[in-house]
Amino acid sequence: MEVEKISVELGERSYEVLVGASLLGRADRLLTDLLLSRGWKRVSLITDKNVGPRYSGTVAGSLSRADLEVTVASVEAGEKSKNGRTAMALVDFMARSLLARSDLVVALGGGVVGDLAGFAASVYKRGIDVLHVPTTLMAQVDSSIGGKTGVNLEHGKNLVGTFHQPVAVLCDVEVLATLAPREYASGLAEVAKYSFLMPDVFSPSIESRGEFIRDPRHPQIAQVVMTCAWIKSQVVAADERDKGPRVVLNYGHTLGHALEAAAEYEGSCTHGEAVSIGMVFAAQVAEKLGVASSGLAERHRRVLRKMGLPVRPAGPAPDFDKVAGHLAQDKKSKGDLTMVLLEEEGSPVVRGDIDLDVLAGCYARLLEAG
Ligand SMILES: NC(=O)c1ccc[n+]([C@@H]2O[C@H](COP(=O)([O-])OP(=O)(O)OC[C@H]3O[C@@H](n4cnc5c(N)ncnc54)[C@H](O)[C@@H]3O)[C@@H](O)[C@H]2O)c1
Ligand SMILES: [Zn+2]
Q1: CB neighbours of 332 closer than 8 A, spacing ≥ 6?
Q2: Which of 183, 248, 275 has most ligand 1 atoms within 8 Å of its beta carbon, as the pocket-test mutant?
Q3: Are 307 and 192 in contact (CB under 8 A)?
Q4: 190 alpha carbon – ligand 2 mean position (Å)
Q5: Which of 140, 258, 272, 287 could lock 189 by a disulfide, CB 3.0 to 4.6 Å apart?
Q6: Long-range Cβ pairs for the range 245-251 (8 Å, 24+)
């Protein structure tokens, strides 16, 4: 397949997202213009212990062919690595690798590596270039685009972070084939989110793709990644700093984040699984408030089930009081909650006056429906 390019238009911080197959070994050729203009000499490639053994040799090899001196650091896989201590260890690694202000960091991995390496690159010498090479579906369709970096604190997720746009994003869809099915499905939750927010951009529709969507090797997946990356790039270009329209990308994330926090990031529920449940919940809230007509939540369930995603918490669900405690992070001072809701597929609205009692009722109904 051809390499497709999507531009993220941000003035002097503009960059391209490249989507295609077998990109990892071609980084030197694909990035020729940047290699000439940026003058990088050294590269620290940051990865994790699942991704590194599979793919870092190919990426490092191709960067070496461009005469870059490459050092590789590998963190433990998973959300637990997304903390300040690991970020500072990476900054220290960059210093020991003698990276100059004009050098490069490459983030090779999922959203954890991207957020962590992006954050470390943004603070090392007050900010050096970062290239994202996302290897999960979640990272290819969402986290690698838009420049949000961050680490978690004990008090909550992503509480420390920066905006630091990458110089480019390389999405090699072939690497999705080695993802654990559950991690692949987690990324599909963000795909579903985009298809609920902007169904018209998907042709054929996500629903009509049937079971194919669950096969990371299917040729249609590259086009799905491209469509999602395009939507993300448009939204980011319209609102780089997340002060306005970018908020719609939080669809399903209000309850999603609360469920993740209630599970204390222990992996009992992936980000995508939490968002999937959160979107069904948001649809129920929209129906309850009369924002959407009835049927929206059921249509959500149908699409999400087809993708192999949960539509209610698995096992014993956290009780509403615990969830509500975490929802409070998003609360306005007068006590009501802001949520992105859909009037119907393709028509998001932001509602800032949602009563906790309504949410409690919808949460009870979420647990009843199976
Ligand atoms: N910055 C943003 O805008 C943004 C947006 C969405 C999510 N995020 C963050 O992204 C993180 C979640 O990212 P994720 O879902 O990619 O999880 P992840 O980075 O933890 O990756 C999931 C698992 O898959 C493994 N893996 C990655 N690529 C692989 C491959 N090709 N083959 C085999 N195994 C592979 C990883 O080692 C890990 O064990 C969260 O911390 C979330 O907060 C950030
Ligand atoms: Zn998300």
Answers
A1: 338, 352
A2: 183
A3: yes
A4: 6
A5: 272
A6: 246/146, 247/340, 247/350, 248/197, 248/340, 248/348, 248/350, 249/142, 249/193, 249/197, 250/340, 251/193, 251/196, 251/197, 251/279, 251/282, 251/340, 251/342, 251/348
Cα–Cα distance for residue pair 307/248, rounded to 1 Å:
22
Amino acid in the structure at residue 124:
Y
pLDDT in tens, 221-279: 999 999 999 999 999 999 999 888 899 999 999 999 899 888 876 667 899 999 999 99
Supply the pTM of this predicted model.
Answer: 0.96
Cα 77 to ligand 1 centroid, rounded to whole Å? 9
Q: Ligand 2 centre from 111 Cα, in Å? A: 10
Does the C-beta of 142 come closer than 6 Å to ligand 1? yes
Q: Is 126 exposed, middle or buried (0-12, 13-18, 19+ CB in 10 A)?
A: exposed
Q: Which two tokens stand for residue 341?
A: 């809701």
* φ, ψ (nearest 5 deg) of residue 150: 170, 165
